[in-house]
Amino acid sequence: MDAANVRGVRRLSTLVRHLIVPSPPSSSSSSSTEAPPMASQNPNDLVAPSPAAAFSSVFAHVAQGPEDPILGVTVAYNKDPSPVKVNLGVGAYRTEEGKPLVLNVVRKAEQMLVNDPSRVKEYLPITGLADFNKLSAKLIFGADSPAIQENRVATVQCLSGTGSLRVGGEFLARHYHERTIYIPLPTWGNHPKVFTLAGLSVKTYRYYDPATRGLNFQGLIEDLGAAPSGAIVLLHACAHNPTGVDPTPEQWEQIRQLIRSKGLLPFFDSAYQGFASGSLDADAQSVRIFVADGGELLTAQSYAKNMGLYGERVGALSIVCRSADVAVRVESQLKLVIRPMYSNPPIHGASIVATILKDRETYNEWTIELKAMADRIISMRHQLFDALKARGTPGDWSHIIKQIGMFTFTGLNSQQVAFMTKDFHIYMTSDGRISMAGLSSKTVPHLADAIHAAVTTVN
Ligand code: PLA
């Protein structure tokens, strides 16, 4: 359509709109030369009927989007009036009473921040709170990490784990020569979306073997062995989501050798440091063996689970580089990714984390509370396993106690899950994952009854 035609169509549609606007009931005349209704003295005329009201929305074609496979479970749960409902969907820690938990040490840190009048609400730098960044790198790589001592790490505060993955993904899409990222099959449902939107091309490597409910180590080695040299490999640092299956230290070492020998680039997602074993150091071992060999890598850290700071959205992206001058340039480019995305990160959550990490006493308090959370999850595993055994539920349920971290990948199929939701008001993701952290001694029997019924009546 040429410009004259476009103008013609516009004029015509203005005219049509004008003609079909209903006249205000009390206006004396509706001549087009009169002042617009807003100028009328009659208060009823103050809200003019919108000309657009006569037309359908310019967004009328927008289709209803599906709920998120994980967060949508909470939406459905919230709508259920049943008093026995249990939400085992999202990985969010609950107390024995089924309540969300704010750690004592977090309350204490917040109190310290509130009582400090020198605290202001200025913008943080694009890279976030400097103390927080240093302490986060120390937490994941270890205080004695050579990479930190040699200033080879570029760390930026990001919006929790997801934001760290996204910023890392966009940095790689802009500055790394290989744009393919291999993610485990299965993995956290948001990974493929985050990396695709970041501009990377996503492929999978075999990870889980449903037959053994364990690691498909052979498949993993074959698939990474066949990946093009330089490809990015996403690894869960510990407590693999959703399977709860992690490589052994010996397997990690073989994975490391393969990745380094092929020049693949590891990108660790560390969303559960401390939640797998209860030890922050043990859960960072996978990452640390890669840092120790002097090679490069990325790490996305989240404080959502291990400090219970879910809604504060606090996390960090660290890129370990070969040399300090590369790290400086990498940081300068990370800033160019972040600035147009959200300008700079929020101050409160990062201040809580920095307050806790920089003081030995609060740090120790945190590790004790963290261990207590990890232990309660492990105890839930045992209670659920025992409850199924007591009911004689068909099948081998030993994976419940073998798996690690927040989740049990039960092996229940989507029909069985739908049945448990409908008949027992138990909410979980359709892949059969349950958040052990959402269970309590009180709800274990109900869950065991539901699993028993599902397994014995639904195929
Ligand atoms: N990476 C993994 C492996 C995760 O499981 C999660 C969260 C994140 C990153 C992102 O966490 P963050 O942005 O909140 O720091 N997975 C949760 C929640 C706990 C979710 O899906 O958002 C889950 O239920 O799987």
**Annotated CATH homologous superfamily of the largest domain:** Type I PLP-dependent aspartate aminotransferase-like (Major domain)
CATH architectural group of the largest domain: 3-Layer(aba) Sandwich
Question: In the residues, how many domains can be counted?
Answer: 2
User: Structural class of the helix and strand makeup?
Assistant: alpha/beta
Helix content: 40-55%
Based on CA atoms alone, the radius of gyration comes out at 27 Å
Provide an overview of this structure.
By secondary structure, the protein is of the alpha/beta class. The protein contains 17 helices and 13 strands. The chain has helices at residues 3-20, 71-79, 104-114, 130-141, 146-149, 160-175, 191-198, 217-226, 249-261, 280-283, 285-292, 324-342, 348-358, 360-391, 399-402, 414-424, 444-457; strands spanning 86-87, 153-159, 180-185, 201-206, 208-209, 214-215, 232-236, 265-270, 297-302, 314-320, 407-409, 426-427, 433-435. α9 links the parallel β7 (232-236) and β8. α6 (160-175) crosses α12, α8 runs parallel beside α9 and α16 (414-424) packs across α17 (444-457). The structure holds ligand PLA. Ligand PLA binds next to α6.
Give the SSE layout.
Blueprint: H1 3-20, H2 71-79, E1 86-87, H3 104-114, H4 130-141, H5 146-149, E2 153-159, H6 160-175, E3 180-185, H7 191-198, E4 201-206, E5 208-209, E6 214-215, H8 217-226, E7 232-236, H9 249-261, E8 265-270, H10 280-283, H11 285-292, E9 297-302, E10 314-320, H12 324-342, H13 348-358, H14 360-391, H15 399-402, E11 407-409, H16 414-424, E12 426-427, E13 433-435, H17 444-457
Parallel strand pairs: 1-12, 3-4, 3-7, 7-8, 8-9
Antiparallel strand pairs: 2-10, 5-6, 9-10, 11-13
GO biological process, one term: amino acid metabolic process
Protein name: Aspartate aminotransferase
Cofactor: pyridoxal 5'-phosphate
